[in-house]
Amino acid sequence: MTRSKACSDPSGVDLPRLRSLLDRPELERVLRAVRSGLERGGAERVSIADPTEQERRALDELLGRRPSTGARLVLSLGQLEDTLRRAALAPNLRSAFESLGGPLRNPSLEREERERAWRRVFDSQSAEVERLGAGAWLAALEREGLLKRLAGQDPVLAERLLSQALGVLQCLPQRGKTLSALAAECLGDAHGLDEGRPVATLVRRALNADEQSDSSDALWASAGVLVGGGITSSVLALNLRVETGGATASIVDAAADSGEPIYLTLRQLLRDPPVWAPCATPVSICENPAVVAEAANALGADCAPLICTRGQPSAAVVTLLNQLAAAGIRLRYHGDFDWPGIRIANGIIGRHGAIPWRMGAADYLEAEDSGKPLTEEVVAADWDPELGRAMQERGQVIEEERVVQVLIADLDLRVDSGGSHG
């Protein structure tokens, strides 16, 4: 290359000639690789894969070297810098590439600044978090990266989302307020807490601190908030008793006096909760409505208190069980002997302090064959390791309806049923 006169640019870069030499389509990939190598720091050489003949020829001519070969086109950064310096185009590669494409990034400094920005996000709300006793929640958001993901890695948006979530948490618990009303009050947007919205996700994470698998409706209900008005979520009950209360208590008492099953909605349980009366026997919980119907037919008002989950517990079921457990009322559970039934039993026994009711390996083996094979993935019974093994060996589903007469005998208040039958 021919040496030119020194240019007047204080950086020592002859930009017009530099652009004429380097700003060509056939060198575009090479220059991107060089810039990336300079930004990473410490790179001695860069390469591009599967170069075209035009790319290979342009780089070989630029460096004044023999035609190269191979699957990758390799460039020594020192050789390129020496070429530019000898041609008086630039004193060094950094000056050349900053003149061509702007300042080089410093990934290390950028990473440090990002870390400082995120530290400011989490520190900005520390006083309010401490006041709400939500330190574990905030620590989990930081540790798991949930807030960063919801904010699209934008610290400014993240701080706003965190502030909004804390604003909602300040308004909890409620007593039967609808989710949309809560969202309108706290966020100015009636849909701001809808499923999938970032603030809703953050608040639900706070409500689900122990990461239980409750439904979204049940999580909101645990804070006294009704999703969809709480009308459709209900729990089937028989002969529950109350001490005091309003309209809901009157309904419960009237039904128990006549031994009739009733459905209580989530709305009733949250907006007009009765004061539940303790009872000598545990409140029994079953999985299938047929058990409630048969118990009501056989025993009427002489049936011990009974609740039905109707499969996976709804928000209303979870709310009622939480209320009863909080009142110090003992609970016992029976369900289907199949793998989904064991999963439901694990949840109710683990979360609500219920004891198993005729749900041991011996109870399973005593039941008559159903002819229905067990399917789906095996689930271990947390309260009885032998139960799972017995179920796998026998391979039969035992539904509650097949043992309903045994359950009804336990529920008969006119006789001593012999305790909880664990």
TrEMBL record:
Top-level taxon of the source organism: Bacteria
Pfam family, one: DUF2399
InterPro entries tied to this protein: CHP02679 (IPR013495), CHP02679_N (IPR024466), DUF2399 (IPR024465)
Organism this protein belongs to: Thiorhodococcus fuscus
The name this protein goes by in its record: TIGR02679 family protein
All copies of domain DUF2399, residue ranges: 263-411
Alphabetical list of NCBIfam families matching this protein: TIGR02679 family protein (TIGR02679)
Ranges where the Conserved hypothetical protein CHP02679 N terminus domain occurs: 45-241
